[in-house]
Write a structure and sequence with these properties.
heterodimer, A: 325 residues, mainly alpha, B: mainly alpha, MetI-like fold, 0% strand, disordered N terminus, disordered C terminus, membrane (chain A), MetI-like (chain A), transmembrane (chain A), cell membrane (chain A), transport (chain A)
Chain lengths: 325, 271
């Protein structure tokens, strides 16, 4: 790259300038940066690196450190001796239950988002042209950037017992369908807005745009001639999908799943507003750091998504998902 | 070569794509209807009647105005900080190669890649350890941290498309570093920065998870919304506020889209 070369490989002494330099302190500074590009680089990098390094990484390390502390059960005070006891508590049945519930939800939400996102992304990538392309793009970007809380609120309106969904199903005389679904133990509940199904729908809704964008990016790179060649060679649409389209879209799906998975793992507001009283990791963290004052256990809980995501990213990287971002 | 022959999509694909887009948009449209409902005790559908009185009620609520003002202030200051830090970082990463470049990109993306609750609780416990009282500025500290990435992403994309020969030409013609920045680099990256800034503003304006951990008694608009969601007190006012929030976040997104849309035609981009 020529621009990189221009600045990076400029250690050689500049010969006499054709024009006199501007002089003054600005000119002197400019000359100095020209002669010492590393200094300029250092000055450019220092503010963002210091900010993120101190404010963000510093806080993260402080949090990690606290996960190795423990809490005294009788006094409720934090014992600042390094121990793995708090991590042990994660494996108590109640806590393990929370972790499994959250990871399962994240996995199902990811799969559902991929299924719903694929047709949108495929249509936008292959068939939409000109004005329609722009419309599709905005159609994804607007919900993506709309207020998170407003989106949840919209679903509170929809899923409420007196809300539009009940009304619609009553008009269609299909109310028995919802009632039957709600009577299933794990996924059901008193009404959709206080059931695991409701939580699932809202998760899918809120994270769906994060899945569409990378899948679309991956599909944009699939040449149309490849699909045509596949059908010319006698493959049925289903075979073309399975053997050509899907493998090529997979890095995009994995890239999108990084978002849907990670965001579901850490969220505590959606299950709090629409869902059952059974906790998710985020809610457990919130509860432990808040009223309970058990910062070490809260910190240990936050390590779970970090570890899960670490493995996930490692696997995704091996599948080449980062090229699709 | 992509075939130029115009094909039409299979019907099933059309229906699935349309259904997906409807799923994304109908809930937001519903908010607009609810803002006009006369029902104030429940979320009844269809609305028993339509009225505009709740707009006046919401307009006269001091708590809504306070929350809105605080949100705008926080978003403005966080965006300003993010613009400076993000641009510096993008310039350094895209213009030069140095040891640890990948690490820096990762560092910038990390605050948004990790779940918000981790950023939030990490900051909160750090403030507690350092005995920093929660204030307006602790909120900004948190928001600016995750806003950097949006500015950075936009600026990096533009820097990559900008031809390095432009900078060389400017230098060859006798401009010093600052002149080159002012007259060559800035006009080229300007719209990308504006777009990044708008998205950062929207991100901060809407952020709730990190804010719940870094705010003391202050109520930003999302915190106010959250309170209403958990313990609904005055549903009609919430409906109106929700509708206004949708409209307000719509504008920066549309503007950012139009600003970066023609990005491919940036001078020197055809290289």
């Amino acid at each position: 790259m020529s621009n990189a070369a221009a600045i990076a490989i400029s250690d050689r002494k500049p010969t006499s300038a054709i024009l006199p330099s501007r002089g003054g302190i600005i000119g002197a500074l400019s000359d100095l940066f020209w002669r010492r590009p590393r200094l300029l680089l250092f000055l450019m990098l220092a503010p963002p690196v210091l900010w993120l390094g101190i404010v963000y990484l510093g806080s993260l390390f402080a949090l990690l450190l606290q996960s190795f502390f423990s809490i005294d059960e009788f006094s409720g005070l934090i014992n600042r001796e390094l121990t793995l006891k708090t991590y042990g508590e994660l494996f108590l049945p109640a806590n393990l239950d929370i972790i499994i519930r959250t990871v399962t939800m994240a996995a199902i939400v990811t799969i559902a988002s991929a299924i719903i996102a694929f047709p949108i992304a495929y249509y936008a990538a292959r068939f939409a042209r000109g004005k329609w392309k722009a419309l599709f793009y905005l159609g994804i970007m607007l919900p993506l950037w709309s207020s998170y809380l407003v989106k949840i609120y919209a679903w509170k309106l929809i899923l409420a017992k007196e809300g539009i969904l009940t009304w619609l199903f009553e008009k269609l005389h299909l109310m028995w369908l919802i009632d039957a679904w709600l009577s299933i133990p794990v996924v059901g509940g008193n009404s959709l807005s206080v059931s695991a199904t409701g939580t699932f729908i809202v998760f899918v809704y809120v994270w769906l745009p994060f899945m569409v964008l990378p899948v679309q990016a991956a599909l944009e790179r699939v040449p149309g001639s490849l699909i045509e060649a596949s059908s010319d060679l006698g493959a049925s649409p289903a075979q073309t999908f399975r053997n050509v389209l899907f493998p090529l879209a997979l890095p995009g799906i994995v890239a999108g799943s990084i978002f849907t998975f990670s965001l579901t793992l850490g969220d505590y507001i959606i299950p709090q507003i629409i869902g059952t009283s059974r906790l998710f990791i985020g809610q457990a963290v919130y509860a432990h750091q808040g009223t309970a004052g058990n910062i070490p256990l809260a910190a240990a809980f936050t390590v779970v998504p970090i570890v899960v995501m670490g493995f996930y990213l490692w696997g995704a990287k091996r599948m080449g998902a980062f090229d699709a971002l | 070569m992509r075939s130029d022959r115009q094909q039409s999509a299979p019907l099933g694909l059309k229906i699935a794509a349309a259904a997906g887009l409807l799923f994304l948009h109908l809930p937001l449209l519903l908010i607009f209807v609810y803002a006009f409902t006369t029902e104030e005790k429940s979320y009844q559908w269809p609305p028993p009647g339509l009225t505009t009185q709740w707009f006046a009620v919401a307009w006269n609520r001091p708590d809504v105005w306070q929350a809105l003002t605080l949100s705008v202030q926080v978003a403005a200051i966080s965006t300003a900080i993010a613009l400076v830090l993000g641009t510096l970082c993008a310039a350094a990463v895209s213009q030069t190669k140095f040891f640890g470049r990948e690490t820096i990109s990762l560092l910038v993306i990390l605050p948004i890649a990790l779940p918000g609750i981790i950023t939030g609780i990490a900051l909160r416990s750090a403030f507690n350890l350092a005995e920093i009282p929660f204030s307006f500025w602790t909120i900004i500290l948190g928001h600016a941290t995750f806003c950097v990435v949006v500015v950075y992403n936009n600026a990096v994309a533009r820097f990559r498309r900008m031809s390095g020969s432009l900078i060389e030409a400017s230098m060859d013609l006798g401009a010093d570093g600052f002149q080159t920045f002012r007259h060559v680099i800035l006009p080229n990256i300007g719209t990308a920065l504006l777009a990044g800034g708008m998205l950062a503003f929207a991100l901060s304006f809407d952020e709730v998870i990190v804010t719940t951990f870094t705010a003391g008694q202050q109520q930003t608009l999302p915190i106010w919304m959250l309170e209403e969601l958990v313990r609904p007190r005055q549903r009609p006012v919430t409906n109106v506020v929700a509708m206004v929030v949708v409209l307000v976040t719509l504008l920066p997104i549309l503007a950012a889209y139009y600003l970066t849309r023609d990005g491919d035609q940036i001078a020197g981009g055809g290289k």
